[in-house]
Amino acid sequence: MRFGRVRQESGHIPVVQVGTTMFDLRPLASDIDGIFLSGSGMARTTDWIAEGRLRPLRDGSLTPNGAPIARPGKIVCIGLNYLDHAAETSAPIPTEPIVFMKDPSTIIGPFDDVHLPRGSKKTDWEVELGVVIGSTARYLESTDDALDYVAGYVLSNDVSEREFQLERGGQWDKGKSCETFNPLGPWLVPSRDIDDPQNLQLILTVNGDVRQDSSTSQMIFPVSYIVWYLSQFMVLYPGDLVNTGTPAGVALGANDFPYLTEGDVMELSISGLGRARQKVVAR
């Protein structure tokens, strides 16, 4: 089972795909948001399909073109969370997660264009495992049950302008929150359908050339630790998105890869979460 949103002129249609059949979720939910996720929406979906209360879409071959969740209350990101990425940037391995925030309005669909900000010289790609929160998490006691607070996982591209981020002073947010800088999806896959979030392959190519090819097994801080850790400093609400860091292979690294320019095409995937494609255009 996997959830998505099909964008049309009249708005987004929430959908769920089971096997090769795609169902319209609107009889059950107006959107895939915190209300749906916190209200046992995923479990109820299974029941409604079994009871025949959700009808298949006429065109079951549709690929969701909208972000798979409605705009979250917040996007929380973890920096330098892969051993190989820390090594390629000559950064010390963090002893605690590096936390920063990203503007939720940066979220776009998985096949939308990414806009180069005005004055950009160092726009970079970052394939990441996105974690969508399903239950309110505050001051969790341990990492043992932290994954119980996760609704599901998404494919995320934490696009970054490195000059804005690192060379212009202040926080990282300037280089992370430019318009269109968080393509997401196409699918939200329930956590129960992902056997092990620490055993997923991440791949990103630019113009067909492989830039990133790694595994979530290389994370310094696993998903369970990240959710527990964040809950000690902020409340995570249903529908919030956590970007968990990127592996080696970014332009910022020691690979001598060129930064993104107009016309470049990024293609990315994570095991079980689908594939996405974004073209870079001038703003």
Q: What is the oligomer described by this structure?
A: single chain
Rounded mean pLDDT is 95
Architecture (CATH level 2) name of the largest domain: Alpha-Beta Complex
The top-level CATH class of the largest domain is: Alpha Beta
Q: What does the largest sheet look like?
A: 6 strands, mixed
Q: Output the structural class.
A: alpha+beta
The number of domains is 2
Rg from Cα: 18 Å
Query: How many helical stretches?
Result: 6
The gross shape turns out to be: globular
How far apart, in Å, are the first and last alpha carbons? 37 Å
**Which residue ranges are poorly predicted, with pLDDT under 50 across at least 5 consecutive positions?**
none
- Helical content stands at 10-25%
- Note the run of SSEs as H and E: EEEHHEHEEEEEEEHHEEEEHEEE
CATH topology of the largest domain: Fumarylacetoacetate hydrolase, domain 2
Going across the major beta sheet, what is the strand order? 5-4-16-9-10-13
Strand content: 25-35%
**Overall number of strands:** 18
CATH homology group of the largest domain: Fumarylacetoacetase-like, C-terminal domain
